[in-house]
Amino acid sequence: MNSQAQVIVVGAGPVGLSAALLLARWGVQVLVLDQRPGREPVGSRSICQQRDVLDIWTAAGAGKVAVEGLAWTTARTYYRDRELFSWSFEHDGLLPACVNISQARTEQLLDEAVAAQPLIEVRWDHQVTGLTQDAAGVTVRCGQRLLRASYVVACAGARSQPLRQALGVSFDGETFDDQFLICDIRADLPGWENERRFYFDPAWNPGRQVLIHPCPGGTFRIDWQIAPDFIPTENDISRKIRQIIGERSYELLWHTTYRFHARIASRMRVGRVLLAGDCAHLVAPFGARGLNSGVPDAENAAWKLAFVLNGWAEEELLETYHIERHAAARENLEVTAATMRFLAPRTVEERMRRRAALEGGRIEEVDSGRFAEPYWYVDSPLTTPEPERPFQGRPPKGAPCVPAPGVILPDVRLPAGRLRDFSRDGFLILVGEMCDSRLFAQVLGKVITAPLAVRGLAEMDGSGTLAEKLDARPDEAWVIRPDSHIAAIIPHAGPELVVDAVSRVLRGSPDA
Description:
Blueprint: E1 7-10, H1 14-25, E2 30-33, E3 48-50, H2 51-60, H3 64-68, E4 74-79, E5 82-88, E6 98-100, H4 103-115, E7 120-123, E8 130-133, E9 138-142, E10 145-149, E11 151-154, H5 161-166, E12 171-187, E13 195-200, E14 209-215, E15 219-226, H6 234-245, E16 250-265, E17 269-270, E18 273-275, E19 281-282, H7 291-309, H8 319-343, H9 348-359, E20 413-414, E21 417-418, E22 427-431, H10 437-447, E23 452-456, H11 457-460, H12 465-470, E24 477-480, E25 486-490, H13 495-507
Parallel strand pairs: 1-2, 1-11, 2-7, 4-13, 11-18, 22-23
Antiparallel strand pairs: 3-6, 4-5, 8-9, 9-10, 12-15, 12-16, 13-14, 14-15, 16-19, 17-18, 20-21, 22-24, 24-25
């Protein structure tokens, strides 16, 4: 069997490459397999990359995505020819809140990062035709070739039904009737370069929607909702573009039509195989919750596999991959399903409600897609609840979530870099000024073999700004997981309580 890999990643798309880079970052040998003969750099496809995904890619060695992407600032929403409302991202001097960049370019930048990583091998023209698991690992069949690894991460995209069937995994859900036409164009559109525009029922697409996104290099992505049976011709496409941009010159770079799906795998972990990205869940793209949930899948899988492979955690930890990321996928399905009910109402009641909201300017009822955000592992078995720090629920659009156990750690500018620069090398224990960081480190070092660092808040930022932004108290200890989520906030903290919180994560459950 020709493989030295500890983990085989199936699929060389953005999620698969992210998983490979993140595993290699932990010192894991990775083999990436893809059935295609090579890279196919066509079309914008998934373009909106959210800040926390940019943060993951930066940690994985692909920070160029954040640099090259276009950081648009304002989202405008229209009903016919009237602007209903607009909102803007808050800029804090850290990573952009969102960038637009074509999936093709994102894949090229990830390919560059993979090529610089000696622990990763990529093999094209390798279609997986079978998987066999045993107590020691997984045998992967590619035609007549057999490959062997301890674990497999399946990131082979939406068309992975044979693989899911082989694992006994269903992929229930629905497909929406309406089609969507996508065009990438290059044009000079002054004033549109940093704005996302969403149109409900414009005169040039009556009864349906149009979404326009700026992209790097003077390019724009336009999405039209079109009738289920409409087959657009070149003349149709030209007419639709002209209705938006007028007589300006433009270049059509790419176009396609597609339908939205809402589906979720019944299991995201089957023994030694973990499913991630579109292989595990499909959602309508409004709110950019596809790739922006697939990359956190990859990170969640990578650190847990690495901890198990390195003997730092129990194998039961892997089951929490399914628990946490399946819950995240279900939330994304709920959010996008509500959006689709507003965009494409199916009942008289839904149509009347939508019309009343749009014509009455009831902004709070208008749903063009809640933008992607990290999932909060509040109910995870890895999270230690704290009554003094309850989860306060989903924040208003564009606002950060109040820190609590399960929530992702806010990012803060520090003298030595960003706070999250310190939070992906293992466990990070942040302690207030009433806690002895050296004592904590000594006690933890005796019982925890996983990578771990104890840092005083005042040590990281003597000005007190960090403690103020986190609302951290002097007697608290914050346990931060290797994926920057808060595992515990412990008041009146002693080293033993921190050991308990870290051990809870490494066991994979509170009672194991």
